[in-house]
């Protein structure tokens, strides 16, 4: 790995702990004004000091994040269909590599829809994005998006994560599931987990804890943080689990405080 790639990755995955707490706030790219992110700037300003990296679209970055910010930026670069469409897999690359470089991004991310209607195009999109990213030393995060009809088990997520790694993704974002260790074993690049739909805080902390125990390098979590009744407490608690190896009980106390 050459210097530029190492440098960018070190701004995402903390070299001291080998772990990361990415804050995902890209949901509006297909959901519009998502609950908890209607006023995005107001929602994320108090959370930024506790995140290692922000996962966001270019539009929200330009309009809602201070250009003097110290937080590293991972850019969501795919999109297309909105929640009004049945087929969310109909995605294209929407933001260019030049734009990611202009915005000083430390990485770019996109979804693949394995088993979806447009599976082939989204996997090819990933290959093409990696082709453009490599000469620019830009890490690529591949997200194993799950369609309504897909079962989130280790077999499916293992398949999707492995395909992402085979296409050249440098980091994979997937979901936690039973036998998650098997997903990690078969995927030679770092895995972060998405939080998914909002669940009880203690359950979300347990999920983060289990994922780390099973080999994830961290989380790229959104709704379980910004839709919590105490978003700052929640991100601090997740951080304690990811970077300090805190127990679920101790992390829950942090959230409560
Ligand atoms: C949306 C995404 C999100 O970044 C990802 O799902 C993480 O957010 P959450 O924890 O809310 O699931 O890729 O498509």
Itemize the secondary structure elements and their pairings:
Layout: H1 3-10, E1 20-24, H2 28-31, H3 40-44, E2 53-56, H4 58-64, E3 73-76, E4 78-79, E5 92-93, H5 97-102, E6 107-112, H6 119-133, E7 140-144, H7 154-166, E8 171-175, H8 180-185, E9 191-194, H9 201-213, E10 218-221, H10 223-226, H11 231-244, H12 248-256
Bound molecules: ribulose-5-phosphate (5RP).
Ribulose-5-phosphate is lined by residues 24, 26-27, 55, 143, 194-196, 220-224.
Textual characterization of the structure:
- This protein has 257 residues and is α/β, with parallel strands linked by helices.
- Helices cover 40% and strands 16% of the residues.
- The protein has one domain (3-256): Aldolase class I (TIM Barrel), CATH 3.20.20.70.
- It has helices spanning 3-10, 28-31, 40-44, 58-64, 97-102, 119-133, 154-166, 180-185, 201-213, 223-226, 231-244, 248-256, and strands at residues 20-24, 53-56, 73-76, 78-79, 92-93, 107-112, 140-144, 171-175, 191-194, 218-221.
- The protein has an eight-stranded parallel β-barrel, surrounded by five helices.
- α9 runs parallel beside α11 (231-244) and α9 (201-213) packs antiparallel against α12.
- The model has no long low-confidence stretch (mean pLDDT 97).
- Residues 24, 26-27, 55, 143, 194-196, 220-224 line the site of ribulose-5-phosphate.
């Amino acid at each position: 790995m050459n210097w530029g790639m190492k440098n960018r990755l070190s701004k995402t995955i903390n070299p001291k702990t080998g772990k990361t707490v990415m804050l995902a706030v890209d949901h509006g790219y297909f959901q519009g004004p998502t609950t908890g992110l209607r006023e995005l700037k107001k929602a994320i300003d108090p959370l930024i000091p506790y995140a290692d990296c922000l996962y966001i679209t270019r539009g929200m970055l330009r309009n809602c994040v201070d250009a003097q910010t110290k937080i590293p930026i991972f850019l969501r670069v795919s999109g297309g269909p909105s929640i009004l469409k049945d087929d969310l897999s109909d995605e294209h690359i929407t933001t260019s590599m030049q734009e990611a470089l202009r915005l000083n991004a430390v990485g770019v991310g996109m979804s693949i829809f394995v088993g979806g209607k447009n599976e082939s195009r989204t996997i090819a999109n990933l290959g093409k994005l990696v082709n453009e990213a490599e000469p620019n030393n830009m890490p690529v995060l591949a997200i194993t998006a799950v369609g309504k009809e897909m079962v989130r088990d280790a077999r499916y997520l293992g398949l999707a994560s492995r395909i992402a790694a085979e296409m050249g993704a440098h980091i994979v974002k997937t979901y936690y599931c039973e036998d998650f260790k098997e997903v990690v074993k078969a995927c030679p690049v770092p895995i972060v987990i998405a939080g998914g739909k909002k669940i009880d805080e203690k359950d979300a902390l347990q999920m983060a804890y289990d994922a780390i125990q099973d080999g994830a390098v961290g989380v790229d979590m959104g709704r379980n943080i910004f839709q919590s009744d105490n978003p700052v407490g929640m991100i601090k608690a997740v951080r304690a689990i990811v970077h300090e190896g805190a127990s679920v009980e101790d992390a829950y106390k942090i959230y409560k405080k």
